[in-house]
Amino acid sequence: PAPAEPAASIKPAQPPAPDAPPVGECPRLAPGIELIGEFEGSGFKEAPSLARRADGQVIQLTPLLYSVAELSDGQRDLSQIAEQIGHDIGRRVSADNVATLVEHRLRPLGILMDADGSAPSVKKPDPFLALKFRAAVIPARISAMLGSTFRPLFLPPVIIVALIGLAITDWWVFVVHGIAQATRQALFGPGAFLAILAGVVLSAAFHETGHATGCRYGGGEPGKMGCGLYLAWPAFYTDVTDAYRLGKRGRLRTDLGGVYFNVVFLLATIGIYLATGYEPLLLLVVVEHVEIVHQLLPVIRLDGYYIVADLTGVPDLFARIKPILTSALPWKPLDDRVKVLKRSVRVAVTAWVVVVVPLLIVELLVVLIQLPRILATAWTSAVKLAGQVSHGFSHGDVLGVLAGSLQILVLSLPIAGILLMLGRTALKTAQSVWRRTSGRPGQRALVSATGAALIAALAYSWIPPSHYHPIRPSERGTIQQGFVSLARPVGLAHPAAPPATPRSQPSRTTATTSSSTRTPSAPGPTLPNSSTTLPSGHAGSMPPNGNAGSLGRQSPTTSTASNTRIATTTTSSLAPATGARSVTTTTTPTRGSVP
Asked: Which of 12, 278, 333, 419 has its CA at 20 to 30 Å from residue 234's CA atom?
């Protein structure tokens, strides 16, 4: 739907729209609509107001639209609503003005009942980089109960003690004790791999509980918890869209609740280690640190994205990318979606766009060009792991069979996720191009030819057989190598390197949790990890001028939605998701979290 009109656009002599409702109609709110009020800590020049639909979608409304919604109680007709609004803003407002807002703004958003008294039918938004294929596992009442149970952990004295404990733990583990023996024992025993894998999953679940607890502590009501697919990885999520009703401090507490609970989990791990002396537990300390850093990255809808969104007061950052880029062109006027932002906020969001867009493009290109090698590495590892499982069966090694089987599963999930992600991206791009070029055969032919040329170039880069060798042990997978692979695909300019000299030490299998967190496993072949440029991965959209929009907040703990906020935690082949939120057009993004 078109963006809502600001109050200043009302004209007293405006004629009624042809399909406007009759002046005597008494509009009323759709079932389940909750009018939340002004969005606190907003980065907009004029702070929007929020409303929440029965499906959990949060909608951004201008003060004018919000006033119309407030007065639509089924008792007042359009003339009475216009009279009251005119009195409030000190201007003449006609019933026809209100009728236009009702029919063309509020009903398309699902805020008001249709003219015939039926409930509005609203299509759920599909935000950019959102959590996909999610399924709720834990109901909202259990999520709220967990939040209440762990609420004391957010008391300031407890937080101070936890941070001091983290500093002491890091000094002892990394400076005094070290992790060499923990790594050695993990490499030599499948039981250690299984223990670490279980710890990673528990940590991701506890991360999500942190988002729910932070929301609960601030006075919000956390929603359902579940699992889904974020980019290429399985993810856990917590629906914390209700955090939008909180102030900036409450939203930031919700955002940081996941990584804070990672710290608590880390301290509990050290406590168990001190009680048992089981060395591989120290590797979980390393994993937790990597997960915390990964979650704080603001590039995709993880906790860092929501932190930036709440610091700036702009919940739909991804929806601002296009208007900011087009507004930077000298021959283009400043987009309305950029004009509505405060100057300081506009600078901050522009800086975010300048950093994020190139990173996303480079990551996608590297994955596309290196896809044959990623698949080759995965196939080689799967074959070796299958042999390990077969060997375990024949020798009655139950732990070896279980560890090998889990590693095959951990290996296959991100590969399937990458292929699914690329397929969905290609399909949506083709559909968008076909729709936008409708009725313009010349433009459609030009775009189609360009797309075919790009596909042919990509296919050509895959042709040389040297591209299909697995990733070698000597390769580091650095950012520099990623850029080199874009300019000169591996294998075209250099002959294949000789195979690495076998070593007597056992090989290492890794399972990634949250994109680049690797957990060592039992002796065996090496699994591919995020160093092969596998993408890692909250999402939503807003109306062109920010007057009306939908917000979603879901933070996957690797963290989508239209005005729903979801935190997500991913496991990058095993990554659960916390901290994912999402934002959609004319609605507010769903907040969620993903580890």
From this structure: 278
Sign of CA dihedral 101, 102, 105, 106: positive
pLDDT tens figures, 433-477: 888 888 888 888 888 888 888 888 877 777 765 545 565 666 655
> Coil, helix or strand for 540?
strand
Q: Which of 18, 142, 16 is nearest to 78 (CA)?
A: 16
Q: Give me 420's structure tokens.
A: 């699914």
Q: How remote is the C-alpha of 165 from its chain's centroid?
A: 30
The vertex-235 CA angle with 232 and 241, nearest 5°, equals 120
Per-residue pLDDT tens digits for 269-324: 999 999 999 998 998 999 999 999 989 989 888 899 999 999 999 988 888 888 99
The per-residue DSSP string of 11-28 comes to -TTPPPPTTPPPTT---B
The Cβ of residue 158 has, within 10 Å, a number of other Cβ atoms equal to 12
Say if strands 517-523 and 225-230 run parallel, antiparallel, or are unpaired: unpaired
What's the distance, CA 335 to chain centroid? 26
- Are 29 and 113 a contacting pair, CB within 8 Å? yes
Helix and strand element counts for the chain (H, E): 16, 11
Considering only CA atoms, which of 573, 541, 544, 568 is closest in space to residue 554? Answer: 568
Tokens of 260: 């804070």
pTM of the complete model: 0.71
Distance of CA 412 to the CA centre of its chain: 22
